[in-house]
Structure formats: C-alpha cells, structure tokens
Specification:
This protein is an alpha/beta fold. It has two domains: 161 residues, Alpha/beta knot (3-Layer(aba) Sandwich), CATH 3.40.1280.10; 42 residues. 33% of the residues lie in helices and 21% in strands. The strands form three sheets. Strands 2-1-6-5-7 form a five-stranded parallel sheet. Strands 3-4 form a two-stranded antiparallel sheet.
Length: 213
C-alpha cells in the first residue's frame, strides 16, 4: 500500500476527485491511502490563522512555517521514512518516470502552498524535493497534489483494471476512435482511419507510434 500524506488548507477541494472512479476503488481495496493535514489544526495562533505578512513587503500573504512544520511532523509520526514534496514553479517538472519511481514508495508527504506561497524555510528544513507540474502558476498546490496521486497510483499493482493494464503495455496514441465507423455531423462525414480497421496489429502499432511523434 502507498500512503499519501497531503498538507493542505483546502482538502475538500480535491477529496471528491480522489474518492471517485479508479482512485476511489483503489482506496476501497486498500491499495492506496490518503490522509490530509490541515495547517490550521497545528497553528499556535489562538484564532487559527496561518497566513502572515511577508517580510520585505509585497502583495498577498505567506503561509507561516511553524504550522506547516508541525503538520508534517504529524504526518511523519505515521510515516517515519517518507519522501517530502514541496510544490514550486522552479522545481523539477514531474514526468512519467517520476510517477513510476514514486509508485515503489510506501509514504509520500506533499505540501500544498496557498496565497503567495509557503515560508521558504520549510523546504530548507525538511530538505523537501522541489516539484513542478508545469510552467505556470496555480492558486494552490491541491491540483498538483491530486495530479501526482493519480499519476503515481496508476503504476500501483491492482489499481488499473485488466483493460487499462493491457492498453498501458501497448503503444498508445493521442488519437483514439470508437463507434460508429463513419460519423455524420452537420452534413459532413468523418471516418475512422483505415489502418485501425485492418486488423493488422503491426501496422496499427506503427501508426500509433508515428502519431506519438
């Protein structure tokens, strides 16, 4: 079983997705476990605030380090040996090879930033791995966390069904087609490529490989 520990102010924003479809079934089977840690539950502030003004000025607020570190400590009590991921636009771009590598882990801790980000000392103290999901900025780290959970879980034995596992082992393509063979839409006819109707798997795989570039 792979246990994901997600430090997030807004777990409700991604929990429905993580409980649906293939991921939901994987959780029900005990193949994947997901735990959330809300920094507001770990702050020492009597009002439960975790956002602070940034030193040096600037717009927005920054998540305080103390609450985040205490939330991670709570996660580490359940996962003494865990990789810690810190989402950042200047981190290594996450790819398929990373997903496969992380799928062999037992515990992964992910820190989701919000507002103008998390105090930089958190990443330095935890020696967390800087990870990016693309060259753009999101309003929080919850979507990247859900993306990693999804991508990594696919490589866990038993998570994908037989059909999906078979497809993963074949040469895939960005172009896929289903019935009908000829689609008529607003007076125009759109056909399935002839090679896909040929039954020649060698030619089909070559076509798919070409489409992948």
């Amino acid at each position: 079983m792979l246990h994901f520990h997600i430090v997030s102010l807004f777990p409700d924003s991604i929990e429905p997705y993580l409980r649906s479809s293939i991921l939901g079934k994987a959780r029900e089977k005990g193949l994947v476990k997901i735990s959330f840690y809300d920094p507001k539950d770990f702050t020492r502030d009597k009002y439960g605030r975790v956002d602070r003004r940034p030193y040096g000025g600037g717009p927005g607020m920054v998540l305080e380090p103390d609450a985040i570190l205490r939330a991670v400590d709570a996660a580490k009590k359940k996962a003494k040996k865990a990789d810690v991921i810190f989402f950042s636009t200047d981190g290594k771009v996450f790819d398929e090879a990373d997903a496969k590598k992380y799928s062999k882990k037992k515990n992964i801790i992910m820190i989701c930033g919000r507002y103008e980000g998390v105090d930089a000392r958190v990443q330095k103290i935890l020696k967390a791995k800087l990870v990016s999901v693309g060259p753009y900025v999101l309003t929080g780290g919850e979507l990247p966390a859900a993306t990693l959970v999804d991508a990594i879980s696919r490589f866990m034995p038993g998570v994908l069904g037989k059909a999906e596992s078979l497809e993963a082992s074949r040469i895939s393509s960005p172009e896929v087609y289903s019935r009908p063979e000829i689609l008529t839409w607003k007076g125009k006819r759109y056909r399935v490529p002839k090679v896909l109707l040929s039954g020649n798997h060698a030619e089909i795989d070559a076509w798919r490989k070409k489409k992948r570039g």
